[in-house]
Specification:
This protein is an alpha/beta fold and 482 residues long. 50% of the residues lie in helices and 12% in strands.
């Protein structure tokens, strides 16, 4: 990936040469020779920079491999309990590469969707507990901070771009984010352009699609003309089984929490008022009404159903995040047709809203593990964020945007990541990930159950309100009981 430096330098030299040749309208030999010399000098400099970077990277990689070999001799090993099922195979592959290079045993286990906390509790009770695990933010850290080694003197922390990506307990760095992710409403540009061009459409460009009212208009009209567009619905199915319900009880629920916190000037709370629950209702209602299936069917719909519907071009909109790219690519929707909209819920000023950006993936090193295992784990992490093999896997294979300085030249090819960059460059305000302050997994489950009952007609919206507001206070008090 260091080729980007060379390409940039060569592009600049080409531009300078073009300016010399065409700016004066002459083909004078001396000017041509000067332009050629400029290009040659730029190429030489680019190659020198690339060689220097390769040498530095190779030296660092060599150093950490030597340390790792010492870990192997000392019997140090790594056991990583991974949170993200969508990257399970890639973590196993990376672990095997490291073991082949160093002799250090690296085991990776991935928890099933929605079972990470229970799996972590179970694994931590074993004699061979994870040496590397994750917390989802401040609430997760509060539970596990006594098991978290201070990372302030590690290469992991030294290479972190900002303290914004670290969770601390006093002066100790207890946990460090390793991926920055974004979610919103993924859309199919080709299908949406077909809608814009239709004589029956009201909204005529993506620039007009910047608030809830416009989103509802577009979705309603697509649903009414779905046969004309060749789709099954405007939105993919809002599956409420365990592989999919987190999109609504956690990620969608973030929006009313974000706006309430914004009003109150806070970033966490022992109680929630539910000020924006009517807005939560209207976006969820839209997902149900303009979908590929009937609301009564969502209890049986899965995350795979939703990703398949979108990837095969059967729906125009799909609420999910940058991590969903691997499930979408290489199907019917080509990369250039992938875009992402903010989740609009009908709040004043939301036309200036960006995508939901943050992290719930923070690495922790188990301080209860042996010193040899802790050292081996830290060296493994250093290799992951500094070696060509590790950086290529995280950035290019897993599609992660990472908060480490060592990844500056590793630009993911993920078009959903580029969509987020475009919103930020346009000055839109990202929506922070406040769902990491949700009081418990039980709270999320209560909201999810109430949403499902509401969708199926076996409950009403007041049940969602009760689960959201009363459930928050109950679960917070339980978590903070003396």
């Amino acid at each position: 990936m260091r080729k980007w430096r060379k390409i940039a330098a060569l592009s600049l030299s080409a531009a300078l040469a073009a300016g010399t040749l065409y700016g004066c309208g002459s083909s004078d030999t001396a000017e041509t020779e000067a332009a050629a010399e400029t290009e040659a000098a730029a190429e030489t400099e680019a190659e020198a920079q690339e060689a220097e970077a390769d040498a530095e990277g190779g030296e660092a990689s060599s150093d950490i491999l030597e340390l790792a070999k010492a870990d192997a001799e000392a019997g140090g090993k790594v056991y990583y309990l991974n949170f993200k099922p969508e990257q399970a195979d890639q973590w196993v592959e990376l672990a095997e590469t490291y073991t082949d290079l160093t002799g250090v045993q690296v085991d990776v286990q991935t928890a099933a969707s929605n079972t990470y906390e229970s799996t972590l509790k179970s694994e931590m009770a074993k004699s061979e507990a994870p040496t590397l695990f994750q917390v989802n933010g401040p609430v997760g850290l509060a539970t596990w901070k006594d098991y978290c080694r201070d990372l302030s003197d590690t290469e992991l922390y030294k290479n972190l771009k900002s303290d914004d990506y670290a969770l601390k307990d006093g002066d100790e760095v207890k946990s460090i984010a390793y991926v920055i992710e974004t979610y919103g409403i993924i859309y199919n540009k080709a299908l949406l352009n077909d809608y814009f061009a239709a004589d029956w459409s009201t909204v005529k460009s993506i620039d007009e699609l910047n608030n809830f009212e416009a989103l509802k208009t577009v979705a309603d009209e697509i649903q009414a003309h779905k046969d004309d567009l060749g789709v099954l619905g405007a939105f993919t199915s809002a599956g409420m089984d365990s592989s999919s319900d987190w999109r609504y009880k956690t990620h969608l629920a973030n929006l009313p929490i974000y706006y309430e916190y914004k009003d109150e000037g806070i970033d966490q709370s022992p109680a929630i008022k539910g000020t924006y629950l009517p807005n939560y209702k209207q976006i969820f209602d839209l997902y149900l009404a303009d979908a590929t299936c009937e609301p009564t069917e969502i209890g049986a719909k899965t995350g795979t159903d939703a990703s398949s519907e979108f990837a095969l071009g059967e729906a125009v909109f799909y609420q999910n995040g940058t991590w969903a790219y691997n499930d979408i690519k290489d199907n019917e929707v080509v990369d250039e047709d992938l875009g992402m909209l903010p989740i609009y819920i009908g709040v004043e000023g939301e036309e200036n809203q960006g995508l939901c950006t943050g992290s719930e993936n923070y690495w922790c090193v188990n301080n209860k593990a042996s010193e040899a295992d802790q050292t081996a784990t830290l060296n493994f992490l250093t290799w992951v964020i500094t070696s060509d093999e590790g950086r290529d896997m995280l950035a290019n294979q897993m599609g992660f945007v990472t908060p480490f300085t060592t990844f500056d030249e590793y630009l993911p090819a993920n078009p959903l990541v580029l969509a987020d960059e475009a919103y930020q460059e346009a000055g839109k305000t990202p929506v922070s990930w406040n769902f990491t302050t949700m009081p418990s997994e039980e709270w999320k489950n209560g909201v999810g159950s109430a949403l499902l009952e509401y969708a199926q007609g076996t409950g009403d919206w007041s049940g969602v309100e009760t689960a959201f507001v009363d459930g928050w206070k109950t679960e917070y008090d339980l978590a903070h009981a003396e």
